[in-house]
Amino acid sequence: MRFIEFAALAALTVPIAARDNFDFRVNQPRRLVAIQRPSPNSITGHTIPLGRANTKVNSLSAGYLQAIRSGKHVDGVYTRLRNGTAELLSIGTGSAFLAPLSAGGESFDVVIDTGSSDTWLVNSQFTCVDPTDSEVIDESQCAFGPSYSLSSTAEQVPNRNFNISYADGERLNGEIITEDLTFAGITIENQTMGLVTVAGWYGDGTSSGLVGLAYASLTNQYSGSNPSADIAGLNIPYNPLLTSMFAQNLTAPIFSIALDRDNSQSAQAAGGVLAVGGIPNIPHGRFWASANISVVSIDALTGQPEYQFYAIQIDGWAVSKNWNASFDVAMTGNTKKTPLLHAPTYNVIVDSGTSLIYAPTDVAASLAAAFTPPATFSSSVGLYTVACNATVPLFGVTISKKVFYINPLDLIIDTGYGFCVTGVQDNGGGMTIIGDTFMRNVLTVFDVGAAQVRFSARQCQLTNGTITLGGKADYF
Ligand SMILES: *[C@@H]1O[C@H](CO)[C@@H](O)[C@H](O)[C@H]1NC(C)=O
Ligand SMILES: *[C@@H]1O[C@H](CO)[C@@H](O)[C@H](O)[C@H]1NC(C)=O
Ligand SMILES: *[C@@H]1O[C@H](CO)[C@@H](O)[C@H](O)[C@H]1NC(C)=O
Ligand SMILES: *[C@@H]1O[C@H](CO)[C@@H](O)[C@H](O)[C@H]1NC(C)=O
Ligand SMILES: *[C@@H]1O[C@H](CO)[C@@H](O)[C@H](O)[C@H]1NC(C)=O
Ligand SMILES: *[C@@H]1O[C@H](CO)[C@@H](O)[C@H](O)[C@H]1NC(C)=O
Ligand SMILES: *[C@@H]1O[C@H](CO)[C@@H](O)[C@H](O)[C@H]1NC(C)=O
Ligand SMILES: *[C@@H]1O[C@H](CO)[C@@H](O)[C@H](O)[C@H]1NC(C)=O
């Protein structure tokens, strides 16, 4: 099997300012090297509806980022909280998307994670352990959906083991197998994947495993059959699911995501669509803005877990109380136009698993002040809170000189606890992330082959069906 190494430069490890005495590091972002010209934005039928986990489960990648941001950890391990306050936290964190995966002809719901790379399913016989202390606990506590049994098309890979620790303390051990997998209507024969036999896992009662959409270098296959002998960094990389599809020329090397908005504003409500090899057949703007991808990997100094994220450089942020404002997108200094804030902003992570936008402190503060009445930072909640009936300012993210305006519906989020928070929060000096608040307003294409991300605006669909955003209807 061919292993595609997209990253040509070695990662330099540089510590960055840690908050709240917690240490993590961002490995110097690596510019991905384009291996081919951009693939066309053709409509593809290879789409999968994305559902949301109907529980308090949070996206792994988002949980990781958020845990690092907020410094929540247990015994040195960053954790995603999953009880009581988790519902509220999930607004700040994100919630997992689920999609169907067929293995050996049987269909399972799996978590879609853009921050990791392995595909795995839980075996029909497995041991559930408590992630915090490794005590064996009842299987039901791992809360998996239906389990997988080796099918006639599966084969165990001898002398290999699967060993992954997610940064929140969850961990999985098992075998490496090859199996015929169908994802988005595309079948890959003999795809390498993990078969989980020991799980320390906070399941959602629905999903039976996970598909990781990040790059191959993060796969977690190790030599031998003794997990205790596995050495971090000595993993044997293999082509993950999407990479295999691309490597075998089964589709163009792109995937795209369109997230839906729903009226309830619940963090766990609407899903969306993931398309492989093209874009889904949905209305979107005439213009595409593209940005080169760099890969940002982050790891906790206390452990080996490492996440990789797709990151881009953006021109800056458009903020105004005046809905007729015109922005100086090229930053020419034109005094008739409103300058962008924090221009440019580097290493902005595009992550569908994160609910909100985490913007640089000055941007978050300017936006908060532009609500009427202004949003204020609540130290008890750790987020900017705002009157649920506040007047929303004009807000957009500028990429490749195009402003992608955010629908007002995405800027005030009802927590369900009797108060509202803003859709754009302070990154506290940490990673800047454009999550669902942004992604609901665009069609996002990850062109892995050309190492770029492209965006096109989607209709600004208000709850009552009106398509409008002040005078800013320059979408089509
Ligand atoms: C929920 O999590 C918090 C924080 O980790 C913990 O203090 C509390 O005891 C937990 N509550 C329950 C009911 O498990
Ligand atoms: C998959 O593995 C089976 C059994 O080893 C083999 O017969 C088949 O040719 C393989 N298919 C591909 C596409 O490699
Ligand atoms: C492999 O699994 C064991 C047992 O869960 C764990 O203690 C160890 O940290 C893992 N090693 C790696 C490199 O993930
Ligand atoms: C994949 O398709 C491209 C373009 O059609 C072609 O140049 C290339 O040789 C193909 N690669 C394989 C492995 O079939
Ligand atoms: C993006 O990458 C391409 C190809 O490597 C390069 O030609 C282009 O200048 C880059 N664009 C920016 C804005 O860095
Ligand atoms: C914005 O433009 C509309 C229509 O041109 C006009 O009626 C309105 O007064 C303007 N608002 C401001 C704040 O300039
Ligand atoms: C907004 O809601 C508050 C109560 O939360 C109320 O006092 C105020 O009048 C409302 N403002 C408007 C403009 O509806
Ligand atoms: C829909 O909502 C918008 C904003 O709340 C309002 O301006 C518009 O008049 C409404 N349209 C209809 C048809 O009710």
From TrEMBL:
Belongs to the peptidase A1 family. PROSITE patterns: ASP_PROTEASE, PEPTIDASE_A1. Residues 97-456 form the Peptidase A1 domain. This is Peptidase A1 domain-containing protein. Keywords: Aspartyl protease, Hydrolase, Protease, Signal. It comes from Aureobasidium pullulans. InterPro entries: Aspartic_peptidase_A1, Aspartic_peptidase_AS, Pepsin-like_dom, PEPTIDASE_A1, Peptidase_aspartic_dom_sf. Residues 1-18 form the signal peptide.
